[in-house]
Amino acid sequence: MPTTIDRAEAIARLPPARGCWLCELLERAEPVFCEADAVVFVPEYGVRWGHVLVAPRTHLETFSELSEERWLCLCDLARRAAVALERELSPLRCYVASLGSPATDLPMTCPHLHIHVVPIYAADARPSTVLTWSRGVVVSSAAERAELGDRLRKHLSG
Ligand SMILES: [Zn+2]
């Protein structure tokens, strides 16, 4: 069962970053689904169980670097990931957000462009309390992420 730890413990568990945090995560993450240059995966440290990330495998930092075709591919994968979460986990709704920034002095961000897809179960949830590690970080095992990935994958292929 995924467990929740506090932000400080999650940060202490992270391996030291050698470069781009998301590029490193993509190297070791087991993809749920890949299409063109885009990858869907369940992160080791999430804001909720079922939190999925959609990212280009290529390191890109701004929307200006993305072609319309690549952006539409990422967005469609995020939409399909939300559909998969709706069908498998039955949340009240899903948040879909791109929060990355090439700026290095912002909290809770990464320069590598990515999209969060987060299932929401509480009617009173707000983005400011969900899209942060300040209220805890959900940690899952590789087996738990693989099992969820198997459930989501069947909804992502078309
Ligand atoms: Zn990167």
Give a brief outline of the structure.
The chain is of the alpha+beta class.
Question: How would the blueprint of this fold be written?
Answer:
Elements: E1 3-5, H1 7-13, H2 21-28, E2 33-35, E3 38-41, E4 45-46, E5 52-56, H3 68-89, E6 93-97, E7 115-120, H4 127-130, E8 137-139, H5 142-156
Antiparallel strand pairs: 1-8, 2-3, 3-5, 4-8, 5-7, 6-7
Bound molecules: zinc ion (ZN).
Would you kindly provide a written description of the structure presented here, covering whatever features stand out?
This protein is an alpha+beta fold and about 160 residues long. The protein has a single domain, classed as HIT family, subunit A (2-Layer Sandwich). About 35% of the residues lie in helices and about 20% in strands. The protein has 5 helices and 8 strands, in the order E-H-H-E-E-E-E-H-E-E-H-E-H. The chain has helices at about 5-15, 20-30, 70-90, 125-130, 140-155, and strands spanning about 5, 35, 40, 45, 50-55, 95, 115-120, 135-140. The strands form 2 sheets. Strands 2-3-5-7-6 form a 5-stranded antiparallel sheet. It has a 3-stranded antiparallel sheet with strand order 1-8-4. A hairpin with a 2-residue loop joins strand 2 (about 35) and strand 3. Helix 3 packs across helix 5 (about 140-155).
